[in-house]
């Protein structure tokens, strides 16, 4: 579902609608507080919002309220998407004291060299090859320079990755591979495009597949319903990118890691 509000709407009007839907009402004081506006400007924006979304958005006493189903970009699903980056009152419609939020991040997604990410972004936007000093998780692996053509970025669970064609793998026709951003140690702009090379389509390499799944019989009926909701299993199936299948099953099913990979990654002496 697309949770982006219409491009023609100002941030202030989006705030008015989201707060009216999610909080139950929005006032001029709320609007002025969120955007440091004057009272006159706050009043004008409220009137513009009420006119644009009449009759759902209307003045009720001293507060503006919303009646009826919310637009997708003001829904509860949209709120969870917005909270991924932390609580921004101007986006969510909630102030920090109203919606306490704590985000526990397990991993860092920045490359080993902070200068690497801007170089990767530049290579992506200009469709230029680069060289990555990259280390995988195969046993006894050391960092190696890899010539790649970046195709796009991918967020899988809490991990950011670069999808790129491997320009060193000539024999297999420069296949598209996954490079975890945090395992990129350095980037150089000295790669060359091989003669006759044609980049793969990011849409093609990101194509979804249908994976048949069933919850374990050991789960109660209520547990099965909860897990089907959590893992987005619909009628015994789950749609996901083809690259995600192995890691999804390794995390949630009885699929062992690759035999040549170092796993698990950490150890602890605590019980």
Q: Any overview of this molecule?
A:
The chain starts with 10 loop residues before the first helix and ends in a 19-residue tail after the last helix. A hairpin with a 2-residue loop joins strand 4 (144-156) and strand 5. The protein has 271 residues and is of the alpha+beta class. It is globular. A five-stranded antiparallel sheet has the order 6-5-4-3-7, with helices on one face. A two-stranded antiparallel sheet has the order 1-2. A two-stranded antiparallel sheet has the order 8-9. Helix 1 (11-23) crosses helix 3 (39-52). Helix content is 30%, strand content 20%.
Quick gist of this model?
With 271 residues, the chain is of the alpha+beta class. It contains 9 helices and 9 strands.
* Gap from first CA to last CA: 42 Å
- Give the CATH topology of the largest domain: SH3 type barrels
Radius of gyration: 24 Å
Largest sheet: 5 strands, antiparallel
